[in-house]
Structure formats: C-alpha cells, structure tokens
Amino acid sequence: MNTLATILLSALPLAAGWAVHVWWxxxxxxxxxxxxxxxxxxxxxxxxxxxxxxxxxxxxxVLADVDRFKHINDTYGHAAGDALxxxxxxxxxxxxxxxxxxxxxxxxxxxxxxxxxxxxxxDMLAVLHGVLARPVDGQDPAVRTTVSxxxxxxxxxxxxxxxxxxxxxxxxxxxxxxARSGTRRAGLGRLFATLAxxxxxxxxxxxxxxxxxxxx
Length: 216
Prior knowledge:
Layout: H1 2-32, H2 43-53, E1 59-66, H3 69-76, H4 78-96, E2 101-106, E3 109-115, H5 121-132, E4 147-153, H6 162-179, E5 183-185, E6 190-192, E7 194-195, E8 198-199, E9 210-212
Parallel strand pairs: 4-5
Antiparallel strand pairs: 1-3, 1-4, 2-3, 6-9, 7-8
Helix pairs in contact: 3-4
C-alpha cells in the first residue's frame, strides 16, 4: 500500500504538468481561431462550429458584406474602418447569440449560422440590417454605412454542405447589394451564375449570366 501511494504521489507533478500543457495548447488553438480585430471566429473556427450546427434543419446560413467599406477607409482612415468592422462584428454576434456562431471570413465579409426556431429568419435579419446601419458609438456620425445580407435556409437545400450554402447566401447577398434591398433569401428572385462556387465578378469566375432562383 505504501508503495502504491508513493507511486501515485510521484505521478501527481507529471499529471499536473500535462494538464497545464493541454490547457495551454487549447488556449493557443482558441486564440488562433479568433480574429484579432473583432474577436469573432476566423474561417477555420467558424467552419468547425457551423458544420455542427448545420445538422439541425432549422439552421440558417447568413453572409454579410459591409457596403462602401473602401470609401469609409479612404475618406476617414483605417482607424474608422476598423471601428466600423468591430461594431459590425459585435452587433452580429449579439444577434446570433450563444446558440449560433458568427465569424469574420476576411476583410469586410462576415458569416453566421443561426437556429431559426420559429421560421422568422427573414424578420430577424431585417431587424439586424437596421441595427448594423446605426452609427458607430464614439465615432463621427458620418462614419456609417449599411450591410447587405444574403441568407439560405439549410432545409431548402438538403443536399448542400456549408460551402454550398455559403455560395447560395453569397449569391443572395450580391443580389441584395445590387438591388439595394438590404437582405435577400437564396432561392428567391434573380440571382447570379457562379463558376466553381464563386459568384460572378469574383476571382476565378468567367461568367456573369444571371439565373433565376427557384421559389422556396
């Protein structure tokens, strides 16, 4: 018994050291999956969580793109642009809540997955669109813009994975931006053709022929 106790006691420092090492590694991984400016998940971190959420048929994929962001940067400076991105991220994360996930895909492009319990995603995103257009607290009131939102309901496209749903949301977002309508649901109205999962006009595309979406 004494021998066993001695062995267990001698192993405690090693176990404690290993636990600290694992905690450190997890902390580093979590930091690596967070965007340093906005605190949102990066593409990798977003993809991991979003893929899990898409197992729920009530999941809705949202793509958001800040309108006239280059103009804000060029006119008011990068600090103002950064403040706008941070405010957009904070507001998006607040509306998504703890049951969903929000991420910054890069530049002024954001994505989210929300669980739509009551089939009210369109109304919720219309409210979000208004919130995102508010001036940034502590900034010149002129430093404001809108955010175009495109969204796709997972249940409408059961064969699509996250990549496919993001593509559809991207098409809808671009249609909303062109029409200045604020939000657009994938599968409704006039969308734009894609090539290899890229919307016309983006790098890697060769066609801009419009296609008509199927009504959901």
